[in-house]
Amino acid sequence: MNLPNILTIIRIFMLFPIVILIEVNAFLSGILFILAVFTDYLDGKIARRYNKISDLGKFLDPLADKILVLGILVYFVWLKYFSPWIVILILFREFMVTGLRLSLVQKGIVLPALKSGKLKTFFQDFSILLYLWNLPFKYILLMISLVLTLYSGFYYFYKYGKEIF
């Protein structure tokens, strides 16, 4: 175990206090969410800078992101903040890209994070924060993140799908 992997595991478990606090103290829930997102930035920075990149980290990091974001989005659906179809489409994209990633790994190809995927993550995180703090434009940002989510999923398959078919 190294520090980047520990930060990634912490991010996974931060989902629980974030969700618990949503209805009790949404402001604090948002602060914890910002800290969780920061661990994503920090673990990558430390791993690259100190050459602590590991196979476990390559697997856990995107998984931690999905657990955090999708866990919160599913809870938002339960709270009836928006329609389940939004989360279903996001889940579909995430499962498809994860399947692509696993298929490529079997062929010795590592699927890198593309700019479209990073942009998707930014908008998802920002829209979640707006929902946590009940700020304006949250639904618009969620829709932008949904479009970017679907676009980036199609783009991953466009760029790397030929490697598995």
UniProtKB/TrEMBL annotation:
Membrane topology, record value: Multi-pass membrane protein
Subcellular location per the Swiss-Prot or TrEMBL entry: Membrane
Record GO biological process: glycerophospholipid biosynthetic process
Similarity-based family: Belongs to the CDP-alcohol phosphatidyltransferase class-I family.
Pfam families: CDP-OH_P_transf (PF01066)
Keyword Transmembrane helix carried by entry: yes
Pathway: Phospholipid metabolism; phosphatidylglycerol biosynthesis; phosphatidylglycerol from CDP-diacylglycerol: step 1/2
Bilayer-spanning residue ranges: 12-38, 59-79, 139-158
Gene Ontology molecular function: CDP-diacylglycerol-glycerol-3-phosphate 3-phosphatidyltransferase activity
InterPro entries registered for this protein in UniProt: CDP-alcohol_PTase-I (IPR050324), CDP-OH_P_trans (IPR000462), CDP-OH_PTrfase_TM_dom (IPR043130), CDP_ALCOHOL_P_TRANSF_CS (IPR048254), Phosphatidylglycerol_P_synth (IPR004570)
Enzymatic class: transferase
Protein's recorded name: CDP-diacylglycerol--glycerol-3-phosphate 3-phosphatidyltransferase
Primary gene name: pgsA
NCBIfam families cross-referenced by the UniProt entry: pgsA (TIGR00560)
Entry-linked PANTHER family: CDP-DIACYLGLYCEROL--GLYCEROL-3-PHOSPHATE 3-PHOSPHATIDYLTRANSFERASE 1, CHLOROPLASTIC (PTHR14269:SF62), CDP-DIACYLGLYCEROL--GLYCEROL-3-PHOSPHATE 3-PHOSPHATIDYLTRANSFERASE-RELATED (PTHR14269)
Catalytic reactions of this protein: a CDP-1,2-diacyl-sn-glycerol + sn-glycerol 3-phosphate = a 1,2-diacyl-sn-glycero-3-phospho-(1'-sn-glycero-3'-phosphate) + CMP + H(+)
GO cellular component, as recorded: membrane
Keywords, sorted A to Z: Lipid biosynthesis, Lipid metabolism, Membrane, Phospholipid biosynthesis, Phospholipid metabolism, Transferase, Transmembrane, Transmembrane helix
Record-listed E.C. numbers: 2.7.8.5
UniProt keyword annotation of Protease present: no
Species this protein is from: Dictyoglomus thermophilum (strain ATCC 35947 / DSM 3960 / H-6-12)
